[in-house]
## 1
Amino acid sequence: MDLQLSNLAMHQLVEELQYLKNGFVNNVQTLENNWIKMKIHTKEFGDKQLILTPNSFFVSKKSLSAKQSPGGFSSFLKKFIYNQRIVDLTQQELDRIIKIEFPNNILIVELFAKGNLILCEKDYKIIRAFRKEEWKDRKLEQGEFYKFPSSKGINPLIETNEEFFKKINQNKKTIFGAIIDILNVSPQILEHIFNKENLNKTQNAVETQKETTIFILNKLKDVYSKKNSKIYLINNVLFTINLDNKEKGEEFESMNSALNKLLLEKLSEETKPEDKIKKKEDKDLKNLRMRETQIEGILNKGEDLQKKGEKIYNNYTKIDEIIKAIKKAQDKGLNEKEIKEKINLVIPSIIKEIDLKKNKIIINL
């Protein structure tokens, strides 16, 4: 079972990461497991790595390697938010949706189901979604206006006493079921409050006194507005309070620390060092064989082609180094002209032409 965050845990995480506001995005990359990494420079805390996963986000305490040639959504995203200031970082009500606002764009991070990233203009017109999706009432596609999914209930922090009592008094369920219907709160947290305050979960909502309903609402407001000093992992879900479990949950100093330990620990298990080495060796061997095949093919074509093949073969090491240098420069976001100029400074006039789209390089040997 994947690690989950209660909506209260996500609320606290957003509060913890407010120091990213006014930071500037220095890079956007894709990790080997397809998580997105945003390198953010903050004035007070220096460079930070914001990691976006399908069901969470956190600032990594250790450096995470990105794909060598990721392309795709991260490269597209970088074109819009590179060197842009983070104006705001907020949670949509108490839903599993985060908004990262920039001067000209909004990046919406949906942390439910398979997860999604949606880059929008300031008026919420979609520029591009990481994953195109469509439902009866909303569509995530270029040119559409982003519509937030229906919330599971009202944010308890903005609900008034009178409105809450009125809704409870009209609900035909038990008081516990009615609150779950009306408010966007975690059932485990609500149950914790009922147990702690010795409240009857099975009492009919319409029979509940006004004082009791207001008391419960205020207790929920206290829980959701308070920043807690401890985080607890209970049944693979992170909470900011220790629930009424027989076994005490694992404790962490902060939500971000918990995610670092739990998610990066899992990531390390999935990508063991020996697996990485083998993967690199296999890739290098494949590239070598492919280049050897290309060389052999050239050598088989007449005297003129044979001479060219010999030149390539004799300069294999140099060619290989140039290809690696081009890949590194491409990862850093350099364009074809910049790459050509930088390499020609080291080896004068070695590169005649680069066409990254066609994977074409013309070299003077």
## 2
Amino acid sequence: MAFKKEIKDTSHYVRDDIKSGNFKRFYLLSGDETYSRDLDFSLLKKALMPEMAEMNFSEFDGRFMKGAALCDAIIEAADTLPFFAEKKLISVSFSGFFKKADEHFTEYIKKMPESTILIFKENECDKRLSLTKYFDKEGRLSEYPKTLEGLRRPILTILAKNKKQIRPSTYERLIDKAGLDMEFISHELEKLIAYTEGREEITIADVNAVVSDRTEEDAFALTNAMADRNKKAALDALYDKLRLGTNMFGILTMLYHQFNTLLIIKEAQAKGISNEELAAKLNYKPYAVKQRAEAAARYTFKELTSFINDCAVIQEKIRTGETDPEFAVERLIIKYSSRIKAEI
């Protein structure tokens, strides 16, 4: 499997339209950088909100209404003419229409009343679908991937609102410690702003003193997804780390450490050693040991030992140039995220 294609950050499309006041009839905000996506979705709704909103605004959530029922409800609302207003706004979250084609809905929007505006918020979209292509061509497809550059705008916006400044080196240290989850970063920024009360600049020393280190937990997120046999989540965690700048050899070393820890915990528990004792020996918090013990329980001793041996073999092949690092690590992750094992 080749390295996942980088998603272009087009989140500025929505903000550009809000700033100019020139709006489209169709909007799709998609991506896993949920902080900026959700913020822009709220700002877009506010900017597009029609007169007499209680009569001319409808909102739907695909987590509570799905499939044909959701499709029919949206169409019924869209077909209703606006009441003493020029436009009607329909907001839809997590429909799933942009992952699995609904041809009935795709055909409908081509003849939807021009007085209706549709905005969608999704976790992901398939650009091959005709519905996605239609939104991209006739409206706005605004994507919000988790990238270093994509995080810069919301971080600097929060700091500017609080009259704080940060140097590029400090920003890099913040991301290095906090990771790519903007929701988590926003909480850490609140701590930094309070900690640096009375001065403008946030320094590397401030970041080191205040910001929680997510590196270990992010590493475990990949391991835990593999233990859950969730290939998609495991590969997504891998690609997140690559976007953060971690190289494949570093990821392989991290996985070796993580699975070796799982084996140590599994062996210790077999001998009757408690989680509290393990936490002290491994320098982990008790909840972290509990998490890893649960992950270890989903593997046999043979599987854990086999993974560690596979890591050592791949490390040597990478070192000698016998294998492509990206290909080898992806295959390793897929193998140990699958219920049926294949030789690598």
## 3
Amino acid sequence: MEPIITWQVDGMDELFQLLRKKYKWSAHDLTLRFVTLLYYISDKSFDEQEYDETLKFIKKNTKMFSIYRGHQMFSIAALLATRFDDPKNSFQMLLEYEHQLRKNKFKHTPYLGIAAYALMLTCPEEYLQERIQKTIDIYQKMKQHHFWLTSSDDYPIAVLLAGSEKNIDALADEMERCYKKLSEAGFSKGNGLQFVSHLLTFSPESVEDKVERCKKIYVFLKHHKLALSPTYYGIIGYLALLGDEYAKALEDIVEIVQYLKSKNFAKGFYKDMNVLISTALVCNQYAEKYKIQQNLIETGVGISIEAMIAAQTAALIAVTTAATTAVTTASGN
């Protein structure tokens, strides 16, 4: 395990305790773990005053039943604070991007805020309407193939895929081929599998190669007693984008999961979340390496570093949002 990751895990443990002490009555532990992770895979140190002021600003500028209230407020504040110099101004921009999506008939659900964030992160304002239209077209293609599975939780990945230069029909065809091949390989059908099929389209490799790699990743994790529930399948899709580097990454992930067990940050019935955290830390190191070695051009499997980061963002947000929603709904919080 790289020394920097040991340092990150130790630091995350401290930050999580700080967040939990301050916000435990307002945010679920899963949300606070996600916030902690965001700071440690970004280049920005946690600024308690800035984060607290961002939370207050969001609350002041939204209505009581806004999609930005509740648990989502904590995630959005962290996403903005770790990616923008002025998170308050960025939130105002986020509201404008969300408004544009709603004008185009996107449903007002918690995932709309995440979609607006993805749009703001990847699309200059002058191309906004064009990107929104392409997002709509991609989403409709998704729905044609999987009417009952496709819903507002697919908005964020549709936004990110709309940034691809691939033809929309070609994208939709590749998604469907990945889904069918993964299902045939033994993966459970459902939202989690559909998300993996979406993630895999970020890579130009053949469907067969990507699916075979997903199978190997799943078998490896299961062998090490880290088998993932379908909600967390996105982790497998993201690891598959590492190409041949996935094998070394898996070894690192197992080591980090073991180290995490000694930390308060990782205690509780969150095995899948610990795998997600470990994967994010490892893959973030690979992304940094690619930036240095290949100067932001391409990774070893031909995927651009920008696409890789977009895929990481999509995987982290989608998996954490789905998991937190499931837990909080079950607990009645």
## 4
Amino acid sequence: MKNPTPPWWRKKKAIEKNMSEPSQHDMKNHSTASHATPKGRARPFRGLALALLVGLTSTLFACSTFKEKEFKSDTLDLKYQESTVLGSETKSLPLDHPLEIAEKTMREHLLSLVYEELHLLSKKKYLFSEEDAGEVARILTKALRRAPPHKVIQFTVKTKKGDTVGKLFASQKKLHWIFSRINGLRYSNNPNPSASYGRVMTNWKMIPQAGQSYHRNQKLLGKFTREDWIASHLRLPGLARSGLKKKKSTQAPAAKAPSGKSRTGEKKEPAPDKPASSQENPEFEEKLKFLKQLHDKKLIDDDEYEKKKKELMDEFF
């Protein structure tokens, strides 16, 4: 007996079931495709590896170039630094690098730098000796001639008193000298001395000479003077080291008249003694005021105050 023909609704249900379930051939193709790696999927990883390789190569190249631009000796260390280490102060100071400058001119600049320690009985001193200036001038001259347009020079001069650390760059026909340490003493922009463990901390400032000036920064409340920053014209007026030396007179001394008589033979009354004014000795008044501040702040006792005051009086009078 033949199987009866299934009704039409059973045929429709069987067809829908076959369409919803994938065949074994389709399952095999799907599993093979899921394990296979498309060609386009490897490209992002390949690009990432290439970027890492390029970055590593550029970093190694930069490090090797930086080391080549360093100079070290027993008396001087020198290297280039990005101008950004100076902060926003260099925005108005475009660098004139490289700069063609003579070694003789650089030596004159080094010999003209003067500083003063801000403590009692301090005197103005030259920053570099003639021996140090001769050796440092040769290296700094070469460094300025080869300086990149966007970098400044950092140098450390090693002396018996201590290291002198500073930065040098050229801008607007001037040489800019910025010092952070002189003979081992750090710079502090605090004008009032502070006590640390019972000792008065020392401070110093640069002293501008002819053709030199302090650098002034524009702040919100006005201009701020940097006493550790000297801007020096490329062509200094006069000879170096002429500011602190007393000029010797080349004229013959005039003949002295007898005491109590003038050259005409008339008797001359002695002039009354004039008290020394503060205008004649402004340095004395400033140091005396500084000494009094130390005494008022109880940084020195009465005996020390009277002793230093007597030494100060003996020096100026």
